């Protein structure tokens, strides 16, 4: 499988992944709040409606990407706990 990480290395990666996860969750929360705010604001004309629709769609696409990132971070945390972090999932060789 790859070289075994020491506790310090595991802790550093765990901290980095947790920080990234918190950042994404915070950004997702802000995006959802912005989307709800847009829904509550009534667009005045067709151009405003089109712009609001585009912006809302863009924000929602960001959340899909961020959700995927959260899943990948959770998978990385699980691999870290099982001693598989830093090992290619396809060929099982050590990365780096």
Description:
Helix content is 73%, strand content 0%. Helix 1 (7-40) runs antiparallel to helix 2. The protein has helices at residues 7-40, 46-81. The protein has one domain: Four Helix Bundle (Hemerythrin (Met), subunit A), CATH 1.20.120. The relative contact order is 0.18. The chain is built from 2 helices and no strands. It is mostly helical.
What's the SSE blueprint?
Layout: H1 7-40, H2 46-81
Helix pairs in contact: 1-2
Q: At CATH's second level, what is the architecture?
A: Up-down Bundle
Low-confidence stretches: none
Radius of gyration of CA atoms, rounded to a whole number: 20 Å
Instruction: Describe the global form.
Output: elongated
Mean pLDDT: 80
Strand content: under 5%
User: Which structural class is indicated by helix and strand composition?
Assistant: mainly alpha
């Amino acid at each position: 499988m790859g070289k075994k990480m020491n506790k310090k290395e595991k802790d550093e990666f765990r901290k980095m992944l947790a920080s990234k996860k918190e950042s994404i969750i915070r950004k997702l929360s802000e995006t959802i709040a912005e989307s709800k705010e847009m829904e509550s604001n009534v667009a005045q004309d067709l151009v405003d409606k089109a712009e609001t629709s585009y912006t809302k769609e863009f924000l929602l696409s960001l959340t899909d990407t961020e959700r995927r990132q959260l899943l990948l971070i959770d998978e990385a945390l699980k691999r870290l706990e099982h001693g598989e972090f830093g090992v290619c999932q396809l060929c099982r060789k050590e990365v780096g």
